[in-house]
Write a structure and sequence with these properties.
- It is built from 20 helices and two strands.
- With about 625 residues, the protein is an all-alpha fold.
- A two-stranded antiparallel sheet has the order 1-2.
- The protein is globular.
């Protein structure tokens, strides 16, 4: 629904404002010998770079070979004007990226619904926020996050080289820095580092929280067993281990569909339990809806923000789509499913259970067979939650090291390693705080206001400045020998073996942190979940996409701009206050940081008395 990118760059073939083909340029590249150009960096000679033939002819420039050529349409790492330059693009092998573009729309929708939808939390969140604030903030979150999802999609579709969340952040902050006169390179790197940390912290903590959830589900289902908490956690991690070996979101589609089936099953259990008990008529006193406190309201809003989280996965999911331009359709289907389910669960659950609605909604159900089946089904959901939160993080490392997610025994495409001269030049540039790929940008050539070369520059120097960057492998500033060692290619290990080792160690680190979170009074899980929502999900989903859209997309109308501005300020404050309360709660509840952790948790008591379970009181008796 948003307008396509239009940076006003006449030489960008993908720019909507382009009216004519880009001017043809000669293929031969040689350094300028003009003494006036000594301060201008020249692009390294890359013989393997080819240029597409032009459809129009231009007069041969002095010293040119006479071949008529045209700049290729937006190669990775290239740019066409000072305003459109990305100072630091991660270099991934195009063959690897092409191999993982296999997802259809329904597979994207399945992954998004499976990861985003947490309807059983909604009654407890409305119990914390109240009717008006809860429903209002839920609708507001739905509208805002739908729009931010489309913003991310517009950016990634129009600039395909921005295929990770950190790359989008880097490009956006670099351009914002240029607007205020700050160093573009520094602004891009700082912005990318901060956003990358938020993304890692959010999904890493989410994986840890889901492991603890899984352990508590298993401990509750097998209360009579002699195993302790730590043992159950190791069992939960072992059960998740096969799922975390799923290479990409494409391969996770069947696990996502299984999770969607579980969500549907829980909808029917929810309807059955409420209809069979009817606490508003069968229990005395019935449900109560008192005014919540201010702290509870903030915690509830952070929880709703967590419920709409998931945008931190969007660039990585869009990267795997066969037809990225169909992204708006996938987002529309996702929200048409999730939002009605959220409103139904929140309103019906809060009406039935009142302020007694629990985060673990199964505690509001009587102890019967449907409730037990619901608990078993929810425990199986954790397999997908742990796997999905890990895939987005490990893929970034694997692609950086040049490990193809589409390969098991051998690489489907051979990486094109740079020559010794190119690698030495790239390493020296990185040691100096620069990168070799910047040397091909037009910003290194003095240009006039119209983008033409300044006076005194020969045509050869123009060709050099606009030569496309070489398709270097991932991490061109990282020595190839270390990439080979870390990816185990130097040992002759295929990609499947590296993923097996690396993802096992990654899951082990999450399990180790979860072992430290096992103590407390049982609320550590809710506090950890709220912290993940306050730190990252609020930023990645709510206000950071607004910043990216401001920097990378055309201007919007005044009314929408005002809506974005208000949303940015409000969500930023919500994030700061939410972090304060979540950290305080986590410190109070996480008693497992020491060596003393009780063997058995205080298992939740599922009551056979329906009214006692639903409202905390027996039939006819007030608590």
């Amino acid at each position: 629904g948003l307008k396509p990118l239009a940076h006003g760059c006449p030489s960008c073939p993908w720019s909507p404002r382009q009216q004519a083909p880009a001017p043809a340029r000669a293929h031969r590249v040689r350094p300028s010998r003009d003494p006036g150009q000594r301060g201008v960096r020249q692009a390294p000679i890359t013989p393997h770079v080819t240029m597409a033939p032009s459809t129009s002819e231009t007069p041969d420039a002095p010293g040119a070979s006479g071949a008529v050529t045209e700049a290729p349409p937006g190669p990775v790492g290239s740019s066409c004007s000072n305003e459109d330059l990305s100072w630091r693009l991660e270099k991934f092998d195009e063959g690897i990226l092409e191999d993982i573009r296999r997802m259809d729309v329904w597979e994207v929708v399945a992954n998004q619904v499976a990861f985003m939808a947490t309807p059983l939390l909604m009654p407890s969140l409305l119990a914390r926020t109240g009717w008006v604030l809860g429903i209002g903030f839920c609708l507001y979150s739905a509208v805002l996050t739908y729009m931010t999802g489309l913003i991310i999609g517009d950016i990634c579709v129009n600039e395909p080289h921005l295929h990770t969340y950190s790359l989008v952040a880097e490009e956006a902050f670099a351009r914002l820095g240029a607007r205020v006169g700050a160093p573009r390179r520094l602004c891009g790197r700082v912005g990318s580092s901060i956003v990358g940390f938020l993304q890692f912290a959010s999904y890493y903590l989410t994986g840890v929280a889901e492991l603890i959830y899984f352990e508590q589900y298993l401990a509750a289902l097998f209360q009579k067993h002699a195993l302790c908490q730590r043992t159950w956690l190791l069992i939960a991690a072992a059960m998740c281990w096969p799922c975390v070996q799923i290479p990409t979101f494409k391969e996770s589609r069947w696990l996502a569909m299984f999770t969607c089936f579980i969500i549907t099953f829980n909808v029917f259990v929810f309807i059955y339990e409420i209809a069979s008990v009817r606490p508003w008529t069968e229990c005395s006193p019935g449900p109560q809806w008192p005014q919540p406190s201010g702290a509870d309201m903030i915690r509830g809003m952070v929880g709703i923000a967590y419920a709409f989280g998931g945008h931190g996965l969007f660039p990585e999911q869009l990267r795997e789509m066969k037809k990225p331009e169909r992204w708006p359709k996938a987002v529309a289907w996702t929200y048409s499913i999730v939002v009605p389910v959220y409103l139904f669960f929140g309103c019906a659950g809060y009406f039935a259970f009142g302020h007694h609605a629990k985060a673990n909604l199964n505690l509001n159900y009587p102890d019967n067979v449907p409730n037990t089946l619901s608990i078993v089904a929810q425990s199986m959901q954790e397999l997908y939650y742990v796997a999905a939160s890990m895939i987005v993080l490990v893929l970034k490392v694997e692609l950086f090291l040049g490990v193809s997610p589409a390969a098991w025994c051998r690489e489907p495409r051979e990486l094109g390693p740079p020559t010794k001269e190119q690698e030495s030049s790239a390493w020296q540039a990185c040691a100096n705080g620069d990168s070799a790929e910047y040397s091909t940008s037009s910003s290194d050539t003095d240009t006039g206001d119209d983008g033409a070369p300044a006076a005194g520059q020969g045509s050869d120097s123009v060709e050099t400045a606009h030569a496309p960057a070489a398709a270097a492998p991932a991490g061109s500033c990282f020595p190839k020998r270390w990439r080979d060692r870390l990816s185990l290619r130097g040992c002759g290990a295929p990609p499947g073996v590296f993923r097996l080792v690396f993802r096992t160690l990654f899951l082990g680190s999450q399990a180790g942190l979860a072992l430290l979170m096992l103590g407390g009074d049982g609320d550590v899980l809710l506090s950890l979940q709220a912290l993940a929502g306050a730190v990252g999900f609020t930023a990645l989903t709510y206000f950071l996409p607004l910043v990216f859209g401001w920097a990378l997309l055309p201007k919007v109308r005044a009314a929408r701009c005002l809506f974005y501005l208000v949303s940015f300020v409000m969500c930023g404050l919500l994030m700061a206050v939410g972090i304060y309360f979540s950290v305080a709660d986590l410190i109070d509840t996480a008693g497992g940081f020491g060596a003393d952790v009780q063997c058995k948790i205080d298992a939740d008591e599922y009551l056979s008395d329906a009214c006692h379970a639903a409202l905390g009181n027996s039939v006819g008796d007030a608590v």
